[in-house]
Amino acid sequence: MPTTAQEFRDLAVMHADDAKLLLDSGRFSNAYHLGGYSIECALKAVLCRQFAAESLPDKGLVQAAYTHNLTELASLAGLAKALKQSKENENFSVNWSIVSSWSEASRYQPASEPEALDLICAIDGDDGILEWIKSHWQ
Fold first, then answer.
1. How remote is the C-alpha of 3 from its chain's centroid?
2. Where do the domains of the chain lie, and which CATH numbers do they carry?
């Protein structure tokens, strides 16, 4: 399991790239699943900074950091105010709505091509959520 901010950043980019490849290959459920995990990893990279460390503290100390809920992670990462401001942009708001509806339970549920395409576009497209999170990595 990754524990450093850099490991989470690397995984975020890798999962987003893999999600695009899976989408292009018609593997929509897996594209959807990995796309969501790219955002989870990106948020956890920011969360590492919130703890003023390059590593996440012990799991017992920060149980909440181990959630898969993207809205909760954004809040834990200290992005609630920035998220609220960014959601004033209608495109960003729609993208966040799509991304935040993702759940780790997606690994057990089939996703359609439109669902996967919407998620990947929300992550990587104009006003994409991954780029927004990356702007908070430093």
1. 16
2. 5-134 (1.20.120)
CA dist list (Å): 72 to 39, 40, 48, 109 = 12, 10, 15, 22
Summarised one tens digit per residue, pLDDT across range 60-96 is: 546 766 778 899 999 988 899 999 999 999 999 999 9
Burial degree of 6 (CB within 10 A; 0-12, 13-18, 19+): middle
Q: What is the reported pTM?
A: 0.87
Cα(87)–Cα(76) distance, integer angstroms: 18
Tokens for 56, please give them.
């996440």
Strand, coil or helix: what is 4?
A: strand
Count of Cβ atoms closer than 10 Å to residue 71 Cβ: 15
Torsion from C-alpha of 50, 101, 27, 43, nearest 10 degrees: 0
Burial class (CB in 10 A: 0-12, 13-18, 19+), 20: middle
Burial of 27 (0-12, 13-18, 19+ CB in 10 A): middle
